[in-house]
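tool_call: predict_structure(chain=1)
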Amino acid sequence: METVRPHTLDTGAPSDGTMSVSCRTFPADRTAPRAAAAWLRGVSTGLSSSRLTDAELCMDELVTNVVRHAWTDADSGPRFVTVRIDRVGAEVEITVEDAGRPFDPKAEPLAPIAQSLEDALPGGRGLLLVRSIASRVTYQRSQGVNRTTIAFPADGSPGA
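tool_result:
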C-alpha cells in the first residue's frame, strides 16, 4: 500500500515561470515504481499520450534506481522518494528526489554496447534510456537531497 506524505524535500516555492502541477512522496520500496507510474498516469501533465509514455518509462527507471541503489542495507531510518511534476514554459519537468547516497546520473558512465548477443549482460541500460528519451536531464544535490529532473516538450509546443 502506498503511503502519502507531505512533500518534505522541497527547498521552497517554484521559481518564476514554473507552475507546480503535482507532487507525491512514496516509500522507497519495491512498490514505488509501479505506484509512481500509476499516479503519473492520473495527473493532467500537459503531455501527449506518446510523451506521457516516454515520461513514465524514464521516471520508472529513476525511481527504480533510487529504490535499488540510494541506500545500503546498513542505512537506517525512513526511506522515501518524492516525484514532482512542474510545467516550465513549453516543457513538463519531472523531478525525482531522495535523501540517499549522492548519485549524479549524468556523470555515471554508460555501460558499453555489446557487440553480440553473447556479450550482452542484463541490466545497466536504464540511464542510457533516460538520457536518450528525455529532452533534458539535470542533477543537483543540495542539503543531502538528490534531485534528478527530466524534461519533455508539453503537448502543442515545438518538439512535442
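agent: The two ends are 34 Å apart (CA to CA). Proceeding to next step.
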